[in-house]
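Predict the assembly for these two chains.
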Amino acid sequence: MKRSRQENLLEKWLLPLVAVAVLLAVWHYSVLMTGTRVFPSPLSVWRGILELLHKHVLWADISDSLRRVVIGFAAATVVGVPLGLCLGWFPSLHQVVNPVLELLRPISPIAWIPVSIIFFGIGDPAAIFLIFLGSVFPIVVAAASGVSSVPPLFRRAGRNFGLTNAQLLRRVIFPAALPQILIGLRISLGIAWLVVVAAEMIAVDSGLGYLVIDSRNSGKRYDLVVAAMLIIGIIGLVLDSVFRLVERIRSVRWGFRHAA
Amino acid sequence: MALPGIAIPDQAAAPKLQVTNLGVVFQGNDKTIAALDNINLEISDGEFVCLVGPSGCGKSTLLNAMGGFLSPTSGSVSIDGELVSGPDSRRILVFQEHGVFPWLTVEGNIGFGLAKLSRSERAQRIAHYVELVQLQGFERSYPSDLSGGMKQRLQVARALAVNPDVLFLDEPFGALDSITRVMMRGELLRIWQAERRTILCVTHDIDEAVQLADRVVVLSSRPARIQNVLTIDIPHPRNISSPRYLTLRDELLKMIGLAYEI
């Protein structure tokens, strides 16, 4: 049965808005009732956001964070996708490289912060390196498993049309694995956004992560801390939503059941 | 309607496909399985041959060996006197279902094997086959928008578009419901009559074989040998309740070892 437009509107927009409103109310009254002087109320956070905007620091911090994420994530994509395709294509290579990958993969990028500072010093390259490390592994794993799970029927159909190995990889294997690769990229972008904040707290002196730690360290401005946290959350949500739009492109949509 | 570059084959020519003493043995870890044993078969140009036999007897193995997907352990397969040594777009295998590429449109699928043609030639070829398999109006649709029968017609169009010498169909309608299957038989026959390709079709449907084929090759259980060959000497369109049709159908059932009275 097709649901009415009103029902969809209610479920998609109105109820989530109510949930946000309830959360804000609970937050507001909790601050009031406990009488805390440390944790800010929603209203003071809003004033904090306005203050940041007024001082023109917010856009600079957002663009610094986004720049680092874009560069680190792009590097991870450029390295991760071809590497994953190779590993999926050559199972023997996968066997050789897999133990190293599996050893490196569980190490949190946070643990790499001291090492990255030794390598690159304080600055952009260190943060970008951490973002790269955090996001490259899910991409490699998704691409490799994408290739190895391409149905043999597609390979045979491709071979049947006289494709060379390179053509088969480009015209059959890659498009067949693309939905899985996109899932890997989306997960990685989420991780990249998590990592940039952590990296900016230690390895650089700008960006939203730095804004969080700097607001706390210089004057215990928790209104600004929470304001920065909220902005981090909103941008993360926007990034994920943009990526979900990619999944709706017709040539990959077949691989996403939820979008079909 | 004939397209430039697609010749209508001459039926009276020498055998199109020749299978000589073909044997296939699979080497397992601790045992060997003989799948095909001494298969000899000649198929003429433009002929429609069905392969039937018990389930698991090696029908698909035979098709794979003929298509060059499988190296025979002994014997050989040649097409137009040329030895088959690997997959080639001159002989196309059509699989059961899910063989079309879901990331390409109907046009993209049909044009898949036509990368070497110029843009206008490719467009012309695609348009011809869209019309032949009656998918007009669906050119820009993706396979997920098509029914099972339409997907199979698309697969046949994709195969025919590269102008193959031989078309191998591996239970092409096996996954379709019975009504669609009967309709697809009519479609395949119409396409075959229009294009006159040499077709080898594996089926486990006796009616399908008797309705479509010029000859039905009956294989034994594993290792498959040719047990019988039945020539269907009824012109198309075939009346499926005519006495001759029913006699041939019964004969085929007997050859397979099935009682025709249950």
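The mean pLDDT of chain B is 85. Chain B has seven helices and ten strands.
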